[in-house]
């Protein structure tokens, strides 16, 4: 501590190398004999400003005044006074003569004259900025005069500097002295270094050295005169050359002119107190009011805050951009981090942050956004996800994988469908930045669950997202996940846009499938959709069939010419028109004008759509709706709403949670089975039956399965390891002894034998009547013998 004080006031005699700051390039101007340099800290490289003052010996008058300024600046703290960091005094020998230099380190600032030239403001924006700056300097001077009973002595353009956030701050405290009229000795020490003040800046009593008049004057008299000099220099655009130039008021705003004249009154006692100056209407403008509101934000209630932040983005367009952006972003980031601002502040911050340079955005805005992902405020989470396209690309892969994704992942299982959908949409930007461990071990499990979500729009968007992020999966995961996700779930969904998305996803990812998968698993599932009740699904199905048949034909031609190695699985490039999935992700699911096109059924007389989600916006650009109770005289009936995604659907233990520690080797798409959550329409049931029965059935079965349709449930055989369809093939239906089926006879000419209605094998005698109190017998499978005991019952 003693060493530090010695460095501050007495000089340590050490070299410049002991200064913990690097001195950079000098600025063009500074107050008095000081030199102003740019600098950086040797510890962390943070920017600073370094002021230096040199003299021939320790008793030099400039050095004595400089020591006074350093001491005063270190002791006086105010938001509008320059912040002191460090100082030292170094003695050296220059060309055989001793030299003493004082170094003072402060926060990074720029001379006001340089800042004005850099901004180049004109008209109203210039006046608003000057009003804000003068407002700050007036508060600093008022603090010194009225609260501290100190006199600055030389308020002028050179004694004002500007921070990185465009705040004006007062410095140059070399002349600063106490002012106490009740103390006889105070007058002698009051302006000990008044000789440092330029003659053009001296008031009349100071120029005459009338200490008696100065003693009787109020403490603000000398500095009020200095405020008048500062106002004249600001609006005239040049430094004051002589006192007579203060009479030129052409450039002074009319609203400020009366107070300007009172500041320069010839009678010290009649000069305007600087605390009263800020009450002038010149200081009541949008810029001053906006920044003042942000400074006292913590004192405002929630309604005032929300109203302010909703208006702020549009308001900033009318204000000086260079000023308000830096100030507003600083206040908003602080308010969001400490919880004094709500979700509208986040929207305003992102909108204004988009006008910053990439470097400024990365330094000032991005760290706050990353911290906000840990917030429990649902409105904040929604705001972050809705605008993730504005900042997602700026996030590094490490930050996304370690800090952002763990918090976002909670939204996949949120009770709000709106938040689940926004979380799903955000993965389009964040998924490329995830590690393979996180991608396969966590994200795919969540997507597997969302593909059976109760909201049809979410199921559709999940399929779209899988097609988009397929390129980021490793080869083994792609082979295990994609076909199962697209064919078993998407193509069999009761929501037509979901089936259409499944077809398009298969086309867009066609380069990842070999010819065997195309021929045995993809084409059979797509072909049956060419008779889909929905016209859009049928159209996409025909396009997909053409694409995959073309790929099969190319494979055939290449094998015939021996260009492909025998036995090597061949990945064929997809057709360029279907290579980009993102393009159709936003438009292919747009609702059509006809209500019948929105339902999973074609040929319906009327339909009514009931919203099932509060989400007003969706990736698919359609409302989250499901068709309900459509009246129709045709064979197609509306399916009921999907059941809860937690029901058992044969896709593994998705309902039991996403415990990554117990199931880190599974992703939800292993050993897939057909979905049986809802009862399909007759037309859709035929298509799904054909999907489950790609292999022709015995002839006898064609004639004997009619009575089994309502009761029997297909089950998977346990011995299908060698079957190309594996776990997604449907087993033969259960039979009764009365059916007497022959399994060794097949009909190769009738591929629809599995779903055709058979003729009855026995004839049933008509019933003579029905008893009043008798209960009808439960229907049985196959032909049954009827034992009629009376004419009144079965």
From TrEMBL:
PROSITE patterns found in the cross-reference section: PROTEIN_KINASE_DOM
Record's keyword terms, sorted: Kinase, Transferase
Protein name according to UniProt: Inactive serine/threonine-protein kinase scy1
Bias kind Polar residues: ranges: 688-715
Domain of life, source organism: Eukaryota
Biased composition (Low complexity): 599-618, 752-780
Protein kinase domain location: 2-283
Region (Disordered): 595-673, 688-722, 751-794
Recorded GO MF terms: ATP binding; protein kinase activity
